[in-house]
Amino acid sequence: MADAPANLFMTIPHPAPTSADMRNAAIADPGFGKVFSDHMVSIDYTDGKGWHNASVGPRVPISLDPAASVLHYAQEIFEGMKAYRQADGSLSLFRPEANAARFNASATRMAMPTLPEDLFVAAVREQVRIDRDWFPTVEGGSLYLRPFMFATEAFLGVRPALEYKFLVIASPAGNYFKSGSPAVSIWISDYSRAAPGGTGAAKTGGNYAASLIPTAEAFSRGHDQVLFLDAVEHKWVEELGGMNLFFVFDDGSMVTPPLTGTILPGITRDSLLQLAREEGLTVREEPYSIDQWRADAASGKLVETMACGTAAVVTAVGHVAGPDGEFTIGSGGPGQLTTRLREKLVGIQRGAIADTHGWVMQVD
């Protein structure tokens, strides 16, 4: 399967696809993560046999043995990515090979088999092709894609499983933040998301499970996102519940926390690093403390803070609150650089701005 030929995936006909009227109603304003398309891609893995049974067919419930390893030892990883509509009506992917590489890095950390990167990309492209009619009509919409893998072997011994399943599902998506606010408010959590030597750099469900209570606390206090500090000193800014952070200063420099194994290496993060340097900014990847953040916001040295991720793209952070008080960044709204970088990134993704980096891959 290494060469991922065009006829790689066996097609299983859908016995009862969603009607056009029902589909159009669902994609008119889908929100995020609540509406799903008709199909899914599936590939199996067995130790000694490798990857096999590649198919694309109806999205159906998954049958698992109660002793399946994923249910007991949490061998599970996933990716988040989007398909975008281009000006000519075609669909494209943004840096899918980077998602494939990160997926395999997560697999290695979780003692799971790696998936050939060209096979990963072929699976995602196949999912987009078969469900292209599910692309939402809402302004700024996209087709959110969720490739994931989990252990299926029925075995209760504590060791890496010998059998796995890889799936890709799709979800029409509108705006990530319901409020549509131009700047978000975040809550500083007392909880820790990841510790040195742990799984913080892997995109695995356990990391997100650990964030659910602090995220719920942030929501209950009226905030949009939760901020995690480091687990050792509880002073260094790491990341939000699912987004990386950037800090922009009045001297034309920008800082983002370094990738030390406790922060997910975001693909949007990496893209913004490149775009910011092209804007002429001095970009540094270095530790930044919550106390320094508060002091820089108060003095005016810090002019913007932005959060980024696949779902929300680039979003301004306007207000920060925690047990020790609260503060506002700039005017509390989006700054010029945040707006400019978002427009440039979205423009590249949707074909309105020339892709000089080779980031955009046509699906058709």
UniProtKB/TrEMBL annotation:
It catalyses: L-isoleucine + 2-oxoglutarate = (S)-3-methyl-2-oxopentanoate + L-glutamate; L-valine + 2-oxoglutarate = 3-methyl-2-oxobutanoate + L-glutamate; L-leucine + 2-oxoglutarate = 4-methyl-2-oxopentanoate + L-glutamate. Its cofactor is pyridoxal 5'-phosphate. Keywords: Amino-acid biosynthesis, Aminotransferase, Branched-chain amino acid biosynthesis, Pyridoxal phosphate, Transferase. Gene3D superfamilies: 3.30.470.10, D-amino Acid Aminotransferase, subunit A, domain 2 (3.20.10.10). Its EC number is 2.6.1.42. The keyword Plastid does not apply. GO terms for molecular function: branched-chain-amino-acid transaminase activity. The keyword Transferase applies. GO terms for biological process: isoleucine biosynthetic process; L-leucine biosynthetic process; L-valine biosynthetic process. The modification N6-(pyridoxal phosphate)lysine is found at K203. Pathway: Amino-acid biosynthesis; L-leucine biosynthesis; L-leucine from 3-methyl-2-oxobutanoate: step 4/4; Amino-acid biosynthesis; L-isoleucine biosynthesis; L-isoleucine from 2-oxobutanoate: step 4/4; Amino-acid biosynthesis; L-valine biosynthesis; L-valine from pyruvate: step 4/4. Acts on leucine, isoleucine and valine. Belongs to the class-IV pyridoxal-phosphate-dependent aminotransferase family. NCBIfam families: ilvE_II (TIGR01123), PRK13357.1 (NF009897). This is Branched-chain-amino-acid aminotransferase.
